Amino acid sequence: xxxxxxxxxxxxxxxxxxxxxxxxxxxxxxxxxxxxxxxxxxxxxxxxxxxxxxxxxxxxxxxxxxxxxxxxxxxxxxxxxxxxxxxxxxxxxxxxxxxxxxxxxxxxxxxxxxxxxxxxxxxxxxxxxxxxxxxxxxxxxxxxxxxxxxxxxxxxxxxxxxxxxxxxxxxxxxxxxxxxxxxxxxxxxxxxxxxxxxxxxxxxxxxxxxxxxxxxxxxxxxxxxxxxxxxxxxxxxxxxxxxxxxxxxxxxxxxxxxxxxxxxxxxxxxxxxxxxxxxxxxxxxxxxxxxxxxxxxxxxxxxxxxxxxxxxxxxxxxxxxxxxxxxxxxxxxxxxxxxxxxxxxxxxxxxxxxxxxxxxxxxxxxxxxxxxxxxxxxxxxxxxxxxxxxxxxxxxxxxxxxxxxxxxxxxxxxxxxxxxxxxxxxxxxxxxxxxxxxxxxxxxxxxxxxxxxxxxxxxxxxxxxxxxxxxxxxxxxxxxxxxxxxxxxxxxxxxxxxxxxxxxxxxxxxxxxxxxxxxxxxxxxxxxxxxxxxxxxxxxxxxxxxxxxxxxxxxxxxxxxxxxxxxxxxxxxxxxxxxxxxxxxxxxxxxxxx
Length: 594
Ligand code: TEU
Description:
Helices cover about 25% and strands about 15% of the residues. The chain has helices spanning about 40-45, 50-55, 90-100, 120-125, 200-215, 245-250, 255-265, 285-290, 325-335, 355-360, 365-380, 410-420, 425-435, 440, 475-480, 485-495, 500, 570-575, and strands at about 20-25, 60, 65, 80, 105-110, 140, 140-145, 160, 175, 180-185, 220, 270-275, 300, 345, 385, 505-510, 515-525, 525-535, 540-545, 555-560, 575-580, 585-594.
Protein backbone atom coordinates (compact mmCIF):
# COMPACT_ATOMS: atom_id res chain seq x y z
CA UNK A 1 0.00 0.00 0.00
CA UNK A 2 1.28 3.43 -0.85
CA UNK A 3 1.51 6.23 1.60
CA UNK A 4 -0.64 9.32 1.39
CA UNK A 5 0.91 12.14 -0.56
CA UNK A 6 -0.53 15.10 1.19
CA UNK A 7 -0.06 18.77 0.83
CA UNK A 8 -1.76 21.69 2.37
CA UNK A 9 -4.71 22.87 0.33
CA UNK A 10 -5.19 26.10 2.16
CA UNK A 11 -6.55 29.05 0.24
CA UNK A 12 -3.09 30.47 -0.40
CA UNK A 13 -2.26 27.44 -2.57
CA UNK A 14 -5.29 27.92 -4.73
CA UNK A 15 -4.51 29.28 -8.16
CA UNK A 16 -6.49 29.20 -11.39
CA UNK A 17 -4.08 27.06 -13.38
CA UNK A 18 -4.36 24.21 -10.91
CA UNK A 19 -8.07 24.14 -11.63
CA UNK A 20 -7.70 24.43 -15.39
CA UNK A 21 -7.76 21.93 -18.23
CA UNK A 22 -5.39 22.79 -21.08
CA UNK A 23 -6.00 21.97 -24.74
CA UNK A 24 -2.98 21.81 -27.04
CA UNK A 25 -3.29 22.95 -30.64
CA UNK A 26 -0.74 22.01 -33.29
CA UNK A 27 -1.84 24.62 -35.81
CA UNK A 28 -0.60 22.99 -39.02
CA UNK A 29 -2.80 19.99 -38.31
CA UNK A 30 -5.85 21.54 -36.67
CA UNK A 31 -8.05 23.21 -39.27
CA UNK A 32 -7.29 24.68 -42.69
CA UNK A 33 -9.47 27.65 -43.63
CA UNK A 34 -8.04 28.50 -47.07
CA UNK A 35 -7.54 25.16 -48.78
CA UNK A 36 -3.73 25.25 -48.99
CA UNK A 37 -3.51 21.99 -47.06
CA UNK A 38 -1.96 23.57 -43.97
CA UNK A 39 -3.98 24.32 -40.85
CA UNK A 40 -4.03 28.03 -40.00
CA UNK A 41 -5.06 30.64 -37.46
CA UNK A 42 -8.38 31.60 -39.12
CA UNK A 43 -9.04 27.85 -39.01
CA UNK A 44 -8.65 27.96 -35.24
CA UNK A 45 -11.08 30.87 -35.07
CA UNK A 46 -13.70 28.72 -36.80
CA UNK A 47 -13.33 26.16 -34.03
CA UNK A 48 -13.29 28.31 -30.94
CA UNK A 49 -16.89 27.35 -30.16
CA UNK A 50 -15.87 23.72 -30.40
CA UNK A 51 -13.28 24.31 -27.67
CA UNK A 52 -15.80 26.21 -25.61
CA UNK A 53 -18.32 23.37 -25.85
CA UNK A 54 -15.68 20.89 -24.81
CA UNK A 55 -15.16 23.07 -21.76
CA UNK A 56 -11.40 23.61 -21.72
CA UNK A 57 -9.94 26.57 -19.85
CA UNK A 58 -6.66 27.20 -21.66
CA UNK A 59 -5.30 26.78 -25.17
CA UNK A 60 -1.62 26.08 -25.64
CA UNK A 61 -0.76 27.12 -29.17
CA UNK A 62 2.30 25.48 -30.69
CA UNK A 63 4.59 27.88 -32.64
CA UNK A 64 2.90 30.14 -35.18
CA UNK A 65 5.84 32.51 -35.67
CA UNK A 66 7.61 33.22 -38.94
CA UNK A 67 9.73 30.17 -39.72
CA UNK A 68 11.24 28.33 -42.67
CA UNK A 69 9.69 25.17 -41.16
CA UNK A 70 12.68 22.90 -40.82
CA UNK A 71 10.94 21.66 -37.66
CA UNK A 72 7.35 22.84 -38.20
CA UNK A 73 7.81 26.22 -36.58
CA UNK A 74 10.19 25.19 -33.78
CA UNK A 75 12.83 26.99 -35.86
CA UNK A 76 11.86 30.63 -35.50
CA UNK A 77 13.00 33.30 -37.95
CA UNK A 78 11.14 36.18 -36.32
CA UNK A 79 9.57 35.98 -32.87
CA UNK A 80 7.23 38.90 -33.45
CA UNK A 81 5.64 37.96 -36.78
CA UNK A 82 3.19 35.25 -37.74
CA UNK A 83 4.16 32.64 -40.33
CA UNK A 84 2.67 33.37 -43.77
CA UNK A 85 1.17 29.89 -44.06
CA UNK A 86 -0.73 30.43 -40.83
CA UNK A 87 -2.10 33.94 -41.14
CA UNK A 88 -1.43 37.41 -39.81
CA UNK A 89 -1.11 39.16 -36.48
CA UNK A 90 -4.69 40.42 -36.96
CA UNK A 91 -5.88 36.83 -37.34
CA UNK A 92 -4.00 35.94 -34.17
CA UNK A 93 -5.58 38.82 -32.26
CA UNK A 94 -9.01 37.71 -33.41
CA UNK A 95 -8.35 34.25 -31.93
CA UNK A 96 -7.06 35.73 -28.67
CA UNK A 97 -10.19 37.89 -28.35
CA UNK A 98 -12.54 35.06 -29.26
CA UNK A 99 -10.92 32.81 -26.64
CA UNK A 100 -10.96 35.50 -23.97
CA UNK A 101 -14.62 36.25 -24.73
CA UNK A 102 -15.31 32.65 -23.80
CA UNK A 103 -13.09 32.74 -20.68
CA UNK A 104 -10.48 30.57 -22.34
CA UNK A 105 -6.92 31.67 -21.75
CA UNK A 106 -4.10 31.44 -24.29
CA UNK A 107 -0.51 30.38 -23.72
CA UNK A 108 2.11 30.61 -26.44
CA UNK A 109 5.05 28.35 -27.21
CA UNK A 110 8.35 29.96 -26.26
CA UNK A 111 11.24 28.48 -28.26
CA UNK A 112 14.41 30.12 -27.00
CA UNK A 113 16.97 27.36 -26.70
CA UNK A 114 17.57 27.95 -30.41
CA UNK A 115 16.42 30.09 -33.31
CA UNK A 116 16.29 29.39 -37.01
CA UNK A 117 19.57 29.87 -38.87
CA UNK A 118 17.54 32.37 -40.89
CA UNK A 119 16.90 34.54 -37.83
CA UNK A 120 18.47 37.98 -38.12
CA UNK A 121 20.56 37.31 -34.98
CA UNK A 122 22.16 34.28 -36.57
CA UNK A 123 22.70 36.01 -39.89
CA UNK A 124 24.57 38.79 -38.09
CA UNK A 125 26.42 36.38 -35.86
CA UNK A 126 27.53 34.35 -38.84
CA UNK A 127 28.73 37.56 -40.53
CA UNK A 128 30.83 38.39 -37.44
CA UNK A 129 28.84 41.52 -36.47
CA UNK A 130 30.36 42.67 -33.15
CA UNK A 131 27.02 42.93 -31.40
CA UNK A 132 25.99 39.41 -32.31
CA UNK A 133 29.26 37.55 -32.40
CA UNK A 134 28.57 35.65 -29.18
CA UNK A 135 24.84 35.08 -29.65
CA UNK A 136 25.42 31.42 -30.51
CA UNK A 137 27.83 28.61 -29.63
CA UNK A 138 30.72 29.11 -32.06
CA UNK A 139 33.83 26.99 -31.64
CA UNK A 140 37.03 26.16 -33.51
CA UNK A 141 37.21 22.65 -34.93
CA UNK A 142 39.53 19.91 -33.69
CA UNK A 143 42.50 18.40 -35.50
CA UNK A 144 40.88 15.54 -37.42
CA UNK A 145 43.89 13.26 -36.84
CA UNK A 146 43.86 13.79 -33.09
CA UNK A 147 40.25 12.84 -32.36
CA UNK A 148 38.13 9.84 -33.19
CA UNK A 149 35.05 11.61 -34.45
CA UNK A 150 34.42 13.39 -37.72
CA UNK A 151 31.83 15.07 -39.87
CA UNK A 152 31.12 14.89 -43.58
CA UNK A 153 31.52 18.67 -43.84
CA UNK A 154 34.14 21.26 -42.93
CA UNK A 155 37.82 21.46 -43.93
CA UNK A 156 39.44 18.10 -44.54
CA UNK A 157 41.79 18.31 -41.57
CA UNK A 158 39.08 19.42 -39.15
CA UNK A 159 36.64 17.53 -36.98
CA UNK A 160 33.78 19.18 -35.07
CA UNK A 161 34.60 20.65 -31.62
CA UNK A 162 33.26 17.56 -29.86
CA UNK A 163 31.57 14.24 -30.59
CA UNK A 164 28.03 15.23 -29.64
CA UNK A 165 25.27 13.87 -31.81
CA UNK A 166 22.19 15.91 -32.67
CA UNK A 167 18.80 14.69 -31.39
CA UNK A 168 17.75 14.70 -35.02
CA UNK A 169 20.68 12.58 -36.27
CA UNK A 170 24.27 13.37 -37.36
CA UNK A 171 26.81 15.62 -35.61
CA UNK A 172 25.52 18.41 -33.36
CA UNK A 173 27.86 20.89 -35.10
CA UNK A 174 27.69 22.51 -38.52
CA UNK A 175 30.55 24.28 -40.25
CA UNK A 176 30.18 27.85 -41.43
CA UNK A 177 32.41 28.75 -44.38
CA UNK A 178 32.21 32.47 -43.72
CA UNK A 179 33.24 32.45 -40.06
CA UNK A 180 35.34 29.35 -40.55
CA UNK A 181 33.96 28.03 -37.29
CA UNK A 182 31.47 25.45 -36.14
CA UNK A 183 28.17 26.23 -34.45
CA UNK A 184 26.29 24.01 -32.03
CA UNK A 185 22.82 22.75 -32.97
CA UNK A 186 21.38 20.18 -30.59
CA UNK A 187 18.40 19.81 -32.92
CA UNK A 188 18.45 20.33 -36.70
CA UNK A 189 21.33 22.22 -38.36
CA UNK A 190 18.77 24.91 -39.09
CA UNK A 191 18.25 25.33 -35.33
CA UNK A 192 21.46 26.88 -33.91
CA UNK A 193 21.59 27.01 -30.09
CA UNK A 194 21.45 30.46 -28.52
CA UNK A 195 24.22 31.35 -26.11
CA UNK A 196 22.46 32.18 -22.84
CA UNK A 197 25.85 32.90 -21.23
CA UNK A 198 25.66 36.18 -23.07
CA UNK A 199 23.54 38.63 -21.00
CA UNK A 200 22.47 40.43 -24.20
CA UNK A 201 20.84 37.20 -25.40
CA UNK A 202 18.93 36.84 -22.16
CA UNK A 203 17.82 40.47 -22.28
CA UNK A 204 16.62 40.03 -25.87
CA UNK A 205 14.64 36.92 -24.90
CA UNK A 206 13.07 38.63 -21.90
CA UNK A 207 12.14 41.68 -24.00
CA UNK A 208 10.43 39.42 -26.48
CA UNK A 209 8.52 37.64 -23.69
CA UNK A 210 7.41 40.98 -22.33
CA UNK A 211 6.23 42.00 -25.77
CA UNK A 212 4.02 38.90 -26.03
CA UNK A 213 2.64 39.47 -22.56
CA UNK A 214 1.75 42.99 -23.66
CA UNK A 215 -0.28 41.43 -26.48
CA UNK A 216 -2.45 39.95 -23.75
CA UNK A 217 -1.42 36.31 -23.49
CA UNK A 218 -1.74 34.30 -20.28
CA UNK A 219 1.52 32.42 -20.18
CA UNK A 220 4.08 30.32 -21.99
CA UNK A 221 4.92 26.73 -22.70
CA UNK A 222 8.71 26.80 -22.72
CA UNK A 223 10.37 24.52 -25.24
CA UNK A 224 13.31 22.47 -23.86
CA UNK A 225 13.96 25.25 -21.39
CA UNK A 226 16.22 23.12 -19.18
CA UNK A 227 18.79 22.90 -22.00
CA UNK A 228 19.69 26.58 -22.18
CA UNK A 229 22.68 26.47 -19.82
CA UNK A 230 25.59 24.59 -21.36
CA UNK A 231 28.75 23.72 -19.41
CA UNK A 232 31.89 25.46 -20.74
CA UNK A 233 33.74 22.18 -21.27
CA UNK A 234 31.20 20.73 -23.73
CA UNK A 235 32.62 17.36 -22.71
CA UNK A 236 32.00 14.06 -24.47
CA UNK A 237 30.63 11.07 -22.64
CA UNK A 238 30.73 8.08 -24.93
CA UNK A 239 28.72 5.94 -22.52
CA UNK A 240 25.72 8.20 -22.82
CA UNK A 241 23.21 8.70 -25.66
CA UNK A 242 24.21 11.42 -28.17
CA UNK A 243 27.80 10.98 -26.86
CA UNK A 244 26.90 12.91 -23.74
CA UNK A 245 25.13 15.92 -25.22
CA UNK A 246 21.92 15.46 -23.25
CA UNK A 247 23.51 14.37 -19.98
CA UNK A 248 25.96 17.30 -20.08
CA UNK A 249 23.46 19.96 -21.01
CA UNK A 250 20.25 18.98 -19.21
CA UNK A 251 19.79 21.11 -16.07
CA UNK A 252 23.16 22.75 -16.78
CA UNK A 253 25.34 24.72 -14.36
CA UNK A 254 23.60 28.11 -14.57
CA UNK A 255 20.05 27.01 -15.35
CA UNK A 256 18.50 28.14 -12.06
CA UNK A 257 20.32 31.44 -12.24
CA UNK A 258 18.85 32.11 -15.69
CA UNK A 259 15.35 31.00 -14.81
CA UNK A 260 15.24 32.88 -11.53
CA UNK A 261 16.36 35.96 -13.47
CA UNK A 262 13.41 35.34 -15.79
CA UNK A 263 11.18 34.86 -12.78
CA UNK A 264 12.29 38.16 -11.26
CA UNK A 265 11.91 40.09 -14.49
CA UNK A 266 8.92 38.53 -16.19
CA UNK A 267 7.04 35.81 -14.40
CA UNK A 268 4.02 36.25 -12.25
CA UNK A 269 2.05 33.71 -10.22
CA UNK A 270 -1.00 34.50 -12.28
CA UNK A 271 0.59 33.33 -15.53
CA UNK A 272 0.57 29.70 -16.56
CA UNK A 273 4.17 28.78 -17.34
CA UNK A 274 5.07 25.22 -18.15
CA UNK A 275 8.65 24.27 -18.87
CA UNK A 276 9.52 21.31 -21.05
CA UNK A 277 12.40 19.56 -19.30
CA UNK A 278 14.23 17.14 -21.55
CA UNK A 279 16.18 14.68 -19.45
CA UNK A 280 16.56 10.92 -19.23
CA UNK A 281 15.48 11.17 -15.60
CA UNK A 282 14.83 14.65 -14.30
CA UNK A 283 16.21 14.84 -10.74
CA UNK A 284 13.50 15.82 -8.25
CA UNK A 285 15.68 18.44 -6.57
CA UNK A 286 16.00 20.30 -9.88
CA UNK A 287 12.28 19.91 -10.54
CA UNK A 288 11.44 21.43 -7.17
CA UNK A 289 13.71 24.40 -7.85
CA UNK A 290 12.11 24.96 -11.25
CA UNK A 291 8.71 25.23 -9.56
CA UNK A 292 9.53 26.91 -6.27
CA UNK A 293 8.00 30.43 -6.41
CA UNK A 294 11.04 31.73 -4.54
CA UNK A 295 13.41 30.30 -7.13
CA UNK A 296 12.51 29.76 -10.79
CA UNK A 297 8.77 30.07 -10.24
CA UNK A 298 7.35 28.07 -13.16
CA UNK A 299 3.80 26.81 -12.66
CA UNK A 300 4.50 23.34 -13.99
CA UNK A 301 6.93 21.27 -15.99
CA UNK A 302 6.79 18.45 -18.49
CA UNK A 303 9.15 15.63 -17.63
CA UNK A 304 9.67 12.68 -19.98
CA UNK A 305 9.88 9.78 -17.57
CA UNK A 306 6.67 8.04 -18.61
CA UNK A 307 7.33 8.87 -22.27
CA UNK A 308 10.66 7.03 -22.14
CA UNK A 309 9.34 3.74 -20.71
CA UNK A 310 8.73 2.12 -24.09
CA UNK A 311 11.29 4.08 -26.13
CA UNK A 312 14.44 2.55 -27.53
CA UNK A 313 17.60 4.57 -28.17
CA UNK A 314 16.52 5.40 -31.72
CA UNK A 315 13.26 5.95 -33.57
CA UNK A 316 13.46 2.36 -34.89
CA UNK A 317 13.82 0.72 -31.48
CA UNK A 318 11.34 0.09 -28.71
CA UNK A 319 11.20 -1.44 -25.29
CA UNK A 320 8.40 -2.90 -23.20
CA UNK A 321 6.49 -0.90 -20.61
CA UNK A 322 4.49 -2.25 -17.69
CA UNK A 323 1.66 -0.69 -15.75
CA UNK A 324 3.56 -0.89 -12.47
CA UNK A 325 6.40 1.14 -14.03
CA UNK A 326 3.96 3.70 -15.37
CA UNK A 327 2.32 4.01 -11.96
CA UNK A 328 5.70 4.30 -10.26
CA UNK A 329 6.50 7.35 -12.41
CA UNK A 330 3.26 9.13 -11.54
CA UNK A 331 3.50 8.14 -7.87
CA UNK A 332 7.06 9.42 -7.63
CA UNK A 333 6.06 12.75 -9.18
CA UNK A 334 2.98 13.21 -7.05
CA UNK A 335 5.03 12.57 -3.95
CA UNK A 336 8.01 14.64 -5.09
CA UNK A 337 5.98 17.75 -5.80
CA UNK A 338 3.37 17.40 -3.06
CA UNK A 339 4.66 20.29 -0.97
CA UNK A 340 6.44 22.44 -3.57
CA UNK A 341 5.11 22.61 -7.09
CA UNK A 342 2.30 21.15 -9.13
CA UNK A 343 2.17 18.36 -11.70
CA UNK A 344 1.24 18.55 -15.35
CA UNK A 345 -0.61 15.46 -16.56
CA UNK A 346 -0.17 14.32 -20.14
CA UNK A 347 -0.02 11.08 -22.08
CA UNK A 348 0.52 12.50 -25.53
CA UNK A 349 1.41 15.70 -27.37
CA UNK A 350 2.70 16.75 -30.80
CA UNK A 351 5.97 14.83 -30.22
CA UNK A 352 4.47 11.56 -29.08
CA UNK A 353 2.40 8.74 -30.53
CA UNK A 354 -1.32 8.71 -29.75
CA UNK A 355 -1.99 7.60 -26.18
CA UNK A 356 -4.76 5.15 -27.01
CA UNK A 357 -2.45 3.25 -29.37
CA UNK A 358 0.35 3.33 -26.85
CA UNK A 359 -1.12 2.85 -23.39
CA UNK A 360 -4.62 1.67 -24.31
CA UNK A 361 -6.08 -0.64 -26.92
CA UNK A 362 -6.77 0.93 -30.30
CA UNK A 363 -8.67 -2.11 -31.60
CA UNK A 364 -11.69 -3.67 -29.89
CA UNK A 365 -11.52 -1.46 -26.79
CA UNK A 366 -10.49 1.82 -28.37
CA UNK A 367 -13.41 3.72 -26.98
CA UNK A 368 -13.26 2.20 -23.51
CA UNK A 369 -9.51 2.61 -23.18
CA UNK A 370 -9.55 6.20 -24.49
CA UNK A 371 -12.09 6.97 -21.77
CA UNK A 372 -10.09 5.13 -19.15
CA UNK A 373 -6.95 7.12 -19.97
CA UNK A 374 -9.02 10.30 -19.91
CA UNK A 375 -10.34 9.32 -16.48
CA UNK A 376 -6.79 8.88 -15.27
CA UNK A 377 -5.66 12.27 -16.56
CA UNK A 378 -8.62 14.09 -15.03
CA UNK A 379 -8.54 12.39 -11.63
CA UNK A 380 -4.86 12.39 -10.76
CA UNK A 381 -3.55 15.41 -8.88
CA UNK A 382 -2.32 17.97 -11.41
CA UNK A 383 -3.41 19.90 -14.48
CA UNK A 384 -4.53 17.78 -17.46
CA UNK A 385 -3.22 18.60 -20.95
CA UNK A 386 -5.42 17.32 -23.77
CA UNK A 387 -3.74 17.05 -27.17
CA UNK A 388 -6.01 17.80 -30.14
CA UNK A 389 -7.93 14.70 -31.20
CA UNK A 390 -7.32 12.91 -27.89
CA UNK A 391 -10.91 13.80 -26.97
CA UNK A 392 -12.05 11.77 -30.00
CA UNK A 393 -9.87 8.78 -29.19
CA UNK A 394 -7.72 9.40 -32.30
CA UNK A 395 -5.18 6.64 -32.97
CA UNK A 396 -1.75 6.21 -34.54
CA UNK A 397 -1.54 6.25 -38.34
CA UNK A 398 -0.88 3.02 -40.28
CA UNK A 399 2.36 4.27 -41.90
CA UNK A 400 3.49 1.96 -44.66
CA UNK A 401 6.42 3.64 -46.37
CA UNK A 402 9.11 6.18 -45.62
CA UNK A 403 7.61 8.83 -47.93
CA UNK A 404 4.53 9.11 -45.77
CA UNK A 405 6.60 10.67 -42.98
CA UNK A 406 7.21 14.41 -42.76
CA UNK A 407 9.02 14.74 -39.42
CA UNK A 408 12.72 15.64 -39.39
CA UNK A 409 13.08 13.55 -36.21
CA UNK A 410 11.88 10.45 -38.07
CA UNK A 411 13.17 11.02 -41.58
CA UNK A 412 16.67 12.29 -40.84
CA UNK A 413 17.88 9.61 -38.41
CA UNK A 414 16.39 6.89 -40.64
CA UNK A 415 18.05 8.27 -43.77
CA UNK A 416 21.42 8.43 -42.01
CA UNK A 417 21.04 4.93 -40.52
CA UNK A 418 20.21 3.48 -43.94
CA UNK A 419 23.13 5.37 -45.57
CA UNK A 420 25.53 4.17 -42.90
CA UNK A 421 24.26 0.61 -43.04
CA UNK A 422 22.97 0.51 -39.44
CA UNK A 423 19.67 -0.70 -40.85
CA UNK A 424 19.00 -2.29 -44.22
CA UNK A 425 15.71 -0.71 -45.11
CA UNK A 426 12.64 0.95 -43.73
CA UNK A 427 10.71 -2.31 -44.02
CA UNK A 428 13.03 -3.96 -41.50
CA UNK A 429 12.11 -1.42 -38.83
CA UNK A 430 8.63 -0.49 -39.93
CA UNK A 431 6.75 -1.76 -36.87
CA UNK A 432 8.85 0.21 -34.41
CA UNK A 433 8.97 3.43 -36.48
CA UNK A 434 5.22 3.22 -36.92
CA UNK A 435 4.73 2.99 -33.20
CA UNK A 436 7.26 5.70 -32.30
CA UNK A 437 7.06 8.47 -34.88
CA UNK A 438 6.02 11.97 -33.88
CA UNK A 439 4.01 12.10 -37.10
CA UNK A 440 1.36 9.93 -35.44
CA UNK A 441 0.31 13.03 -33.54
CA UNK A 442 0.55 15.31 -36.53
CA UNK A 443 -1.94 13.75 -38.92
CA UNK A 444 -4.85 16.16 -39.31
CA UNK A 445 -7.60 16.61 -36.76
CA UNK A 446 -10.60 14.54 -37.80
CA UNK A 447 -13.62 16.82 -38.01
CA UNK A 448 -15.94 14.74 -40.17
CA UNK A 449 -16.27 11.63 -42.34
CA UNK A 450 -15.84 13.78 -45.46
CA UNK A 451 -12.80 13.72 -47.69
CA UNK A 452 -9.69 14.72 -45.74
CA UNK A 453 -11.77 14.54 -42.58
CA UNK A 454 -13.06 18.06 -43.17
CA UNK A 455 -9.58 19.36 -42.27
CA UNK A 456 -8.88 20.94 -45.66
CA UNK A 457 -10.49 21.49 -49.04
CA UNK A 458 -7.05 21.05 -50.60
CA UNK A 459 -4.26 18.51 -50.45
CA UNK A 460 -3.23 18.00 -46.79
CA UNK A 461 0.48 18.47 -45.99
CA UNK A 462 0.44 15.08 -44.24
CA UNK A 463 -2.00 12.24 -44.83
CA UNK A 464 -5.28 12.01 -42.97
CA UNK A 465 -5.84 8.82 -40.98
CA UNK A 466 -8.14 6.52 -43.00
CA UNK A 467 -10.09 5.80 -39.82
CA UNK A 468 -11.56 9.34 -39.96
CA UNK A 469 -14.67 7.82 -41.49
CA UNK A 470 -15.40 6.29 -38.11
CA UNK A 471 -13.52 8.58 -35.70
CA UNK A 472 -14.41 12.23 -36.15
CA UNK A 473 -15.94 15.21 -34.37
CA UNK A 474 -19.32 14.91 -36.10
CA UNK A 475 -19.89 11.32 -35.13
CA UNK A 476 -18.53 11.83 -31.63
CA UNK A 477 -20.77 14.80 -31.01
CA UNK A 478 -23.90 13.03 -32.19
CA UNK A 479 -23.28 10.03 -29.95
CA UNK A 480 -23.91 10.61 -26.25
CA UNK A 481 -21.75 7.62 -25.39
CA UNK A 482 -18.68 8.90 -27.24
CA UNK A 483 -15.19 9.64 -25.98
CA UNK A 484 -15.88 13.32 -26.70
CA UNK A 485 -18.94 13.47 -24.42
CA UNK A 486 -17.10 11.56 -21.74
CA UNK A 487 -14.27 14.14 -21.86
CA UNK A 488 -16.83 16.95 -21.53
CA UNK A 489 -18.18 15.26 -18.44
CA UNK A 490 -14.72 14.81 -16.93
CA UNK A 491 -13.86 18.46 -17.50
CA UNK A 492 -17.10 19.59 -15.89
CA UNK A 493 -16.53 17.35 -12.87
CA UNK A 494 -13.25 19.13 -12.20
CA UNK A 495 -15.18 22.39 -11.99
CA UNK A 496 -17.66 20.88 -9.57
CA UNK A 497 -15.53 18.83 -7.20
CA UNK A 498 -12.65 20.45 -5.39
CA UNK A 499 -11.40 17.05 -4.31
CA UNK A 500 -10.40 16.41 -7.93
CA UNK A 501 -8.10 19.41 -7.82
CA UNK A 502 -6.86 19.72 -4.29
CA UNK A 503 -7.46 16.28 -2.80
CA UNK A 504 -4.53 14.23 -1.53
CA UNK A 505 -3.55 11.26 -3.70
CA UNK A 506 -3.04 7.81 -2.23
CA UNK A 507 -2.08 4.98 -4.57
CA UNK A 508 -3.09 1.40 -3.70
CA UNK A 509 -1.50 -1.78 -5.05
CA UNK A 510 1.49 -0.03 -6.69
CA UNK A 511 2.96 -3.34 -7.92
CA UNK A 512 -0.15 -4.61 -9.66
CA UNK A 513 0.32 -4.75 -13.44
CA UNK A 514 -3.37 -4.84 -14.34
CA UNK A 515 -5.21 -2.28 -12.24
CA UNK A 516 -4.48 1.27 -11.16
CA UNK A 517 -6.38 2.06 -7.98
CA UNK A 518 -6.16 5.19 -5.87
CA UNK A 519 -8.05 7.52 -3.62
CA UNK A 520 -8.26 11.28 -3.59
CA UNK A 521 -9.22 12.84 -0.27
CA UNK A 522 -10.00 16.39 0.70
CA UNK A 523 -10.71 17.39 4.27
CA UNK A 524 -12.45 20.60 5.07
CA UNK A 525 -13.45 21.78 8.53
CA UNK A 526 -16.60 19.72 8.74
CA UNK A 527 -16.33 16.95 6.24
CA UNK A 528 -14.18 14.60 4.26
CA UNK A 529 -14.74 14.17 0.55
CA UNK A 530 -13.24 11.02 -0.86
CA UNK A 531 -12.94 9.52 -4.33
CA UNK A 532 -11.91 6.00 -5.17
CA UNK A 533 -10.66 5.49 -8.72
CA UNK A 534 -10.44 1.97 -10.16
CA UNK A 535 -8.96 1.47 -13.63
CA UNK A 536 -8.58 -1.85 -15.42
CA UNK A 537 -5.67 -1.62 -17.86
CA UNK A 538 -6.44 -4.90 -19.57
CA UNK A 539 -8.75 -6.49 -22.11
CA UNK A 540 -10.04 -9.09 -19.62
CA UNK A 541 -12.33 -8.87 -16.64
CA UNK A 542 -10.62 -8.46 -13.34
CA UNK A 543 -11.52 -8.07 -9.70
CA UNK A 544 -10.11 -5.61 -7.23
CA UNK A 545 -10.28 -6.68 -3.62
CA UNK A 546 -10.60 -3.42 -1.73
CA UNK A 547 -8.92 -2.99 1.62
CA UNK A 548 -11.39 -2.46 4.46
CA UNK A 549 -10.27 1.14 4.87
CA UNK A 550 -11.92 2.13 1.61
CA UNK A 551 -15.14 0.08 1.90
CA UNK A 552 -18.26 2.01 2.82
CA UNK A 553 -21.96 1.74 2.22
CA UNK A 554 -22.35 5.27 1.01
CA UNK A 555 -20.41 5.25 -2.21
CA UNK A 556 -21.97 6.44 -5.42
CA UNK A 557 -20.45 6.24 -8.87
CA UNK A 558 -19.49 9.71 -10.00
CA UNK A 559 -18.37 8.73 -13.46
CA UNK A 560 -17.48 5.56 -15.36
CA UNK A 561 -17.04 4.32 -18.89
CA UNK A 562 -19.57 1.44 -18.82
CA UNK A 563 -23.29 1.12 -18.15
CA UNK A 564 -24.37 -0.81 -15.12
CA UNK A 565 -27.39 -2.57 -16.68
CA UNK A 566 -29.42 -2.46 -13.52
CA UNK A 567 -26.63 -3.66 -11.26
CA UNK A 568 -25.80 -1.58 -8.25
CA UNK A 569 -22.16 -0.57 -8.56
CA UNK A 570 -22.06 0.89 -5.09
CA UNK A 571 -23.09 -2.45 -3.63
CA UNK A 572 -20.09 -4.13 -5.17
CA UNK A 573 -17.88 -1.76 -3.38
CA UNK A 574 -19.49 -2.40 0.00
CA UNK A 575 -18.66 -6.05 -0.17
CA UNK A 576 -15.08 -5.21 -0.99
CA UNK A 577 -14.82 -6.68 -4.44
CA UNK A 578 -14.98 -4.43 -7.47
CA UNK A 579 -15.44 -6.37 -10.68
CA UNK A 580 -14.12 -4.44 -13.64
CA UNK A 581 -14.85 -5.21 -17.26
CA UNK A 582 -12.16 -4.80 -20.00
CA UNK A 583 -10.66 -1.30 -19.75
CA UNK A 584 -13.34 -0.30 -17.27
CA UNK A 585 -12.84 2.94 -15.35
CA UNK A 586 -14.95 3.82 -12.34
CA UNK A 587 -14.80 6.76 -9.98
CA UNK A 588 -16.66 6.32 -6.68
CA UNK A 589 -17.38 9.14 -4.31
CA UNK A 590 -18.39 9.28 -0.72
CA UNK A 591 -18.63 12.07 1.73
CA UNK A 592 -18.52 11.73 5.47
CA UNK A 593 -19.12 14.24 8.17
CA UNK A 594 -16.33 14.62 10.63
O1 TEU B 1 10.83 18.81 -28.10
C1 TEU B 1 11.94 18.32 -27.43
C2 TEU B 1 12.40 17.00 -27.95
O2 TEU B 1 13.51 16.88 -28.35
C3 TEU B 1 11.53 15.84 -27.89
O3 TEU B 1 10.23 16.04 -27.63
C4 TEU B 1 11.68 14.95 -29.07
O4 TEU B 1 10.75 15.30 -30.03
C5 TEU B 1 11.46 13.55 -28.59
O5 TEU B 1 12.50 13.28 -27.70
C6 TEU B 1 11.43 12.54 -29.68
O6 TEU B 1 12.70 12.36 -30.24
C7 TEU B 1 10.65 20.15 -28.35
C8 TEU B 1 9.43 20.33 -29.23
O7 TEU B 1 8.31 19.90 -28.53
C9 TEU B 1 9.64 19.62 -30.52
O8 TEU B 1 8.51 19.62 -31.34
C10 TEU B 1 10.80 20.27 -31.20
O9 TEU B 1 11.13 19.54 -32.35
C11 TEU B 1 12.04 20.35 -30.31
O10 TEU B 1 11.77 20.76 -28.98
C12 TEU B 1 12.99 21.38 -30.85
O11 TEU B 1 12.47 22.66 -30.70
